[in-house]
Amino acid sequence: MLERSECIKPWGVTLGIVGGGQLGKMLSQSASKLGFEVVALDPSPSCPVSSFCKELIVGSLMDEEKIFELAKKSDVVTYEIEHVNTEALKKLESDGYPVYPQPHILSLINDKLKQRVFLRLKGFPVPDFWELDTSNVHRLRFPFVQKAQYGGYDGRGVVVVRSIEDLDKLLNCPSYAEEFVEIEKEISVVVVRGIRGQIAVYPVVEMVFKEGANVLEMLFSPAELAKEIEMVAKELAISIVDELDGVGVFAIEMFVTREGKIFVNEIAPRVHNSGHHTIESCVTSQFEQHIRAITGLPLGSTEQILPAAMVNLLGEPGYKGKPILLGIEEVLKIPGVHVHFYGKKETNPYRKMGHVTIVGKDINEVRKIASFVSERLKVIGDEKI
């Protein structure tokens, strides 16, 4: 097994991935390029990673026995999704298996309230937050945002409460309240940290979310930001990952207010949707960086070769079932357009089915093409709902 101080050679080495979705697929593609083999664990035998790994273990991501089976066939273990059996990963680590990012970090981040408390205690800027007590509505501070303590992702687990009339929207789950912030932009910084503490950071990206669904629709890199704000965002992201002593790729999502103030929104301890464009636009993709980091290999350059946009291919509302891609011929005729279809067998409204990266010399032209792609390229299903 790999010790934290070691650098391993790719040949004959197996990477274990907990989760077999699109992130696992793209990790597997990068692993293959470096000469690694992959064993993955996922509940679905036809998951996106299934065609790209040496072996797929079919089972629940909460099944401790399956996670240990994966570890025994691997030299280093990672995960592509937060919603896994964290306690099993902790046991693996205590038994000497290398697991990155470290399970205690995952445990902290999975509890959104603990994550908030950690960030505030360490002096990182976060919106004000407090215990949500609805027993006396006259003491509530409107407007506020209710956030689920566990399990929220892709817009799930977040409710904006503007007045007493919105209280019927409240989630019935452990949660907390956060002040409502007037946001000018939402940004993300992808950071990679190696097993010896070496660190690299990608250019800041600007994120645009799907109205009504609160799921990432498209992003632009580099973000249109004042240099001072960009520098502060990068420094914050690096400091957070250093404070965690994390190993691997992390995405730090932030808010920028109209006054130019930055708040940290969320930490993702894994390769992230806001870094997909790096496959085509940067010297080293986030996926290759993650593998380099967790195996002790030197980190690659994060230099951006060309400005880029990324458009998420989301399942269209009103459809489910076997996916049908509309507009693909129009889109593929455009220079600089790179389509990634994840191979998921079923579509549902707003499900992430793929993404498109657009690269070009002129960021304004890239933005125009991204808008065109977003309008023309659609994923529907063979069943209407």
Task: Describe the 3D structure.
By secondary structure, this protein is an alpha+beta fold. It has three domains: 14-99, 3-Layer(aba) Sandwich (Rossmann fold); 128-179, ATP-grasp fold, A domain (Dna Ligase, domain 1, 2-Layer Sandwich), CATH 3.30.1490.20; 183-384, D-amino Acid Aminotransferase, Chain A, domain 1, CATH 3.30.470.20. The chain is built from ten helices and 19 strands. The protein has helices at residues 22-34, 64-72, 86-94, 103-110, 112-121, 227-244, 278-281, 286-295, 328-332, 363-376; strands at residues 14-18, 37-42, 55-58, 76-79, 129-131, 144-148, 158-161, 175-179, 183-193, 199-201, 205-209, 216-221, 248-257, 262-268, 308-314, 319-326, 337-341, 352-359, 378-384. The strands form four sheets. Strands 9, 10, 11, 12, 13, 14, 15, 17 and 18 form a nine-stranded antiparallel β-sheet that branches. The protein has a four-stranded parallel β-sheet with strand order 3-2-1-4, sandwiched between helices. A four-stranded antiparallel β-sheet has the order 5-8-6-7, covered by helices on one side. α1 (22-34) crosses α8 (286-295), α2 packs across α3 and α3 packs antiparallel against α4 (103-110). This is N5-carboxyaminoimidazole ribonucleotide synthase.
